[in-house]
Write a structure and sequence with these properties.
It is a single chain. The model has no long low-confidence stretch (mean pLDDT 92). Helix content is 49%, strand content 15%. The strands form 2 sheets. Strands 3-2-1-4-6-5 form a 6-stranded mixed β-sheet, sandwiched between helices. A 5-stranded antiparallel β-sheet has the order 7-8-11-10-9, sandwiched between helices. It starts with a helix and ends in a 5-residue tail after the last helix. The protein has helices at 3-10, 26-39, 59-72, 91-109, 121-133, 138-141, 164-173, 190-205, 209-237, 250-255, 258-269, 277-287, 323-332, 343-349; strands at 17-21, 45-52, 76-81, 114-116, 147-150, 153-156, 239-240, 246-249, 294-297, 300-305, 308-313. Strand 7 (239-240) and strand 8 (246-249) form a beta hairpin.
Length: 354
C-alpha cells in the first residue's frame, strides 16, 4: 500500500522514528506491517504501541499476542496499560480518549512526534453517520482527518480510503490471524448499529462508504477554508493581553456573518474543550442584543466595555484591591494608561506582576 509512504511525503514529514497504534485487529496489523515494509527501506524505524485498556476479559492476552507477532517481524513493541477505575457510562468515548492519551504521553516521553492510526474507509463512514445522527455541524461532519495534531503529537491515518476487507485479504495472504473485538457485536453501541446498517443503506439507496468518504473530503476542504479565514480574522482583529485576556471590536463582531461570529466565540472560549455549540449559539444571540452587558461561559466572563467585547478568566474579584497595583502597573507599562479596560481585566492583568 503506497498510501503509507504517500502520506509522509504529502505532509513533508522526515521523522526517523514512526509509532503505530496496534490493537491486534486486522486494520492495525495491516498498517504496521505495511509501514515496516515501505518505510524501513527509507531509513525509518517503526515502533508498535498496544493499549491494554482492561475493559474486556481477554485484553491482556490480545496484547501479548500482538507482542509475539511484532517480535516475529522484528518490530519494537510496547504495551501501555490503562490502570485505575474504568468507566461505566460513555465507555467507547472514554476509552478512545484514554487510548490517545496513553499513546501521546509515551510518544512525547520518548521524543517521537508522529504516530499512525489504522482508521479505514468503514470507520470514516460510521463516524460520519454517527455525527449526522447527533446533528453535528460542518466541523463534526468532516469526521476523521488523515492528518491531525493532538497535544503536540502528529496523528496520521493512511488507511482512510482503504476497505477493511482488503486489509484482511492482505493478512490472509500472509497466513496471519488477527484479533476480533467481541464488543463489535454489542448493539448497545451506536457505532455497531451503524456498522450493521451500512450494507443495507448501500443496497437500498446506493449510499456507500466510498460515497461518504468523498463527501467528507469535500466537507474538510470547506472547513479548512473557513478555518483559515477565522485564523486570519483573529490575527487581524483580536487583541491578546496578559493572563489569557483578549478583546475585539463589538462593531466588527456585529458586521460578521453569523457562522463566523459563532466560530470566533467558540475558538476564543476553548480551554481543554470547546463549549457546547448550543451554549455558544445562545451567547452569540445574547451579544447581539442592545441590552447585553455581560455573560459567563467556558470559565470566562464576556464583557462589553468601551466598544470592545472582552473575554476575561472567571476568577474572584475585589474591586478595591487592584487599584494601587494598577497605578504601579501603568508606570511600568504606560501604553495601558489611556486604554479603556474593564476593572475585572485590570485586576487580572496586574495579578502576577511583581
Amino acid at each position: 500500500m503506497q498510501v503509507v509512504q504517500n502520506l509522509l511525503e504529502k505532509y513533508k514529514l522526515e521523522d526517523k522514528v514512526i509509532a503505530v497504534g496496534v490493537s491486534g485487529g486486522a486494520d492495525s496489523l495491516a498498517l504496521v506491517l505495511t509501514a515496516k515494509e515501505k518505510l524501513e527501506p527509507l531509513g525509518k524505524k517503526i515502533v508498535a504501541l498496544t493499549v491494554d485498556h482492561g475493559l474486556r476479559p481477554h485484553s491482556a492476552q490480545e496484547a501479548q499476542y500482538v507482542a509475539q507477532l511484532m517480535a516475529k517481524f522484528g518490530i519494537e513493541h510496547h504495551i501501555l496499560k490503562w490502570n485505575g477505575a474504568k468507566p461505566t457510562t460513555a465507555i467507547e468515548e472514554t476509552a478512545r480518549k484514554m487510548r490517545y492519551k496513553l499513546i501521546s504521553d509515551w510518544c512525547l516521553a520518548h521524543n517521537i512526534s508522529c504516530v499512525m492510526m489504522a482508521h479505514h474507509l468503514q470507520d470514516q463512514a460510521e463516524t460520519f453517520l454517527m455525527r449526522l445522527q447527533r446533528g453535528s455541524g460542518l466541523s463534526g461532519l468532516c469526521a476523521i482527518r488523515e492528518f491531525e495534531i493532538l497535544d503536540n503529537l502528529i496523528i496520521l491515518r493512511p488507511l482512510l480510503s482503504q476497505k477493511p476487507e482488503e486489509l484482511k485479504k492482505m493478512l490472509r495472504a500472509k497466513n496471519l490471524r488477527w484479533v476480533e473485538d467481541e464488543s463489535n457485536a454489542d448493539e448497545q453501541f451506536l457505532r455497531n448499529k451503524i456498522r450493521k446498517f451500512l450494507p443495507i443503506l448501500e443496497q437500498q439507496t446506493g449510499i456507500s462508504a466510498e460515497n461518504i468518504y468523498q463527501t467528507t473530503k469535500r466537507l474538510q476542504s470547506a472547513e479548512d477554508y473557513i478555518r483559515q479565514n477565522l485564523l486570519d480574522l483573529i490575527e487581524k482583529e483580536v487583541v491578546f493581553e496578559k493572563n489569557e485576556i483578549c478583546h475585539f471590536s463589538y462593531k466588527m463582531f456585529k458586521s460578521l456573518h453569523s457562522e463566523m461570529q459563532f466560530r470566533l466565540l467558540a475558538h476564543l472560549l476553548k480551554q481543554t474543550y470547546i463549549p457546547r455549540a448550543e451554549s455558544v449559539l445562545h451567547l452569540k444571540e445574547e451579544l447581539l442584543q442592545p441590552t447585553f452587558r455581560g455573560a459567563t461561559l467556558g470559565a470566562k466572563e464576556i464583557l462589553l466595555y468601551g466598544g470592545q467585547i472582552w473575554l476575561v478568566p472567571e476568577v474572584p474579584f475585589k474591586r478595591k484591591a487592584y487599584r494601587q497595583k494598577w497605578a504601579e502597573f501603568i508606570l511600568k507599562f504606560p501604553q495601558y494608561a489611556e486604554k479603556k479596560i474593564p476593572p475585572k481585566a485590570k485586576a487580572i492583568m496586574v495579578k502576577d506582576e511583581k
